[in-house]
Amino acid sequence: ELLSRTVKRIDDGHRLCNDLMNCIHERARIEKVYAQQLTEWAKRWKQLVEKGPQYGTVERAWCAFMSEAEKVSELHLEVKGSLMNEDFEKIKNWQKEAFHKQMMGGFKETKEAEDGFRKAQKPWAKKLKEEWSADLNRTLSRREKKKASDGVTLTGINQTGDQVSQPNKHSSSLSVQSNTVQSVQSSYNPFEDEEDTGSTVSEKEDNKIKNVSSYEKNQSYPTDWSDEESNNPFSSTDANGDTNPFDEDTSPAMEVRVRALYDYEGQEQDELSFKAGKLTKTELQFNEDEQGWCKGRLDNGQVGLYPANYVEPIQ
C-alpha cells in the first residue's frame, strides 16, 4: 500500500505540473488578448475624438479616458510576460529536473521507488511467506486430524449400532449350553449304580454332552423333541430322583401376528428372512429372550429366529 501511494504521488506530481503550466498559459493568453482589445479600442475611439466637434473639458476628459485604457493594456501585457517568462518557465524547469521519462514508458523515479521498496521488503516478504506456509500447514493438519477423529467416531457408532440392532444369538446359545451342562453335572450321582464300570460312566457323560450340544439356542422357547426323546439319558429319573433339568413348561402359548418394520436377511440357516410388511403368527406372544431374539413362523410354514426389534405386534 505504501508503495502504491508513493508511485501514485510521483505520477500525480508530473500531471499536476502540466495542469499548473496550462493554467498559467491560459491566464497569460487572456491577459494578452485583453491588452490587445484595450489597445484597439482606445486607438479607434481616439481617432474619432480627434475628428469630432468636441472641445474644451469634454475633449480633454475623453482623451484622458483613452490614455488610461492604453496604460491598462500595457500593464496586462506586463502580467502576461511575467506569467510566461517567470512562473511558467520555473515550473517547466522543475518538472524536467524532478521527472525523467524512460524510453519504455514511465518515469525513472517510479522504477527507483519500486526497486527500493522491493529491496527493503524482501526479507520481510520471505518471513511473511514462511508464516503463510506454516499457517497453511497447521490448517491442513487440523483438517486431517478432524477427518480422522470423525472417521473413528463414526466407525465406533456403526459398530455399536450393529451390536444393538442385531443381537448375538450365538452368545445366547453358549449361555444356554453352559447352564445346561452345569445342571446335568449337578444332577448326576456317581453312586447311583455300583455295578457300572468306569467305561460305562464315561459313555454316559459323552451321551449327556452330545444331547446338551443339540439343545435349542434359547431355552425360553418350547422345542419339539423327536420320538427318540425317550432314549435321552437326561429324561430318566435315574440321575437325580424325579427331576429333569430340561423339563420346560410345554403349555402352548397363544400366537400373535406381528408386522415387520424393516427388511431382514437371515445370517444363519435357523434365522428367518423377511421384508418390511407382515410376519404372520409368531409364537410365544412376542416373547423375546435376554439377547433380543424371538421365534416365529412365516406364512409358508418356515420356523426360525428373528430380532425382536425388527417387528411390532399387530393390535
TrEMBL record:
Ranges for domain SH3? 253-315
Membrane topology is: Peripheral membrane protein
Q: What ranges does the record list as Polar residues composition bias?
A: 155-170, 210-223, 231-243
Give yes or no: UniProt keyword Coiled coil. Answer: yes
Give the transmembrane region(s).
none
Q: What is its main location?
A: membrane
Q: Which terms are listed as keywords in the entry? A: Coiled coil, SH3 domain
The record's listing under Gene3D superfamilies reads: Arfaptin homology (AH) domain/BAR domain (1.20.1270.60), SH3 Domains (2.30.30.40)
Disordered, as annotated region = 139-253
What's a single GO CC term here?
Answer: cytoplasmic vesicle membrane
**Single GO BP term:** plasma membrane tubulation
Q: Name one Pfam family in it.
A: NPF
**The F-BAR domain covers which part of the protein?**
1-315
Compartment(s) of residence:
Cell membrane; Cell projection, Ruffle membrane; Cytoplasmic vesicle membrane
**MF terms per GO, please?**
phospholipid binding
| Feature: compositional bias, Low complexity | 171-187
UniProt xrefs under PANTHER family:
PROLINE-SERINE-THREONINE PHOSPHATASE INTERACTING PROTEIN 1 (PTHR23065), PROTEIN KINASE C AND CASEIN KINASE SUBSTRATE IN NEURONS PROTEIN 2 (PTHR23065:SF14)
Protein name per Swiss-Prot or TrEMBL: Protein kinase C and casein kinase substrate in neurons 2
Q: What is the lineage of its organism?
A: Eukaryota, Metazoa, Chordata, Craniata, Vertebrata
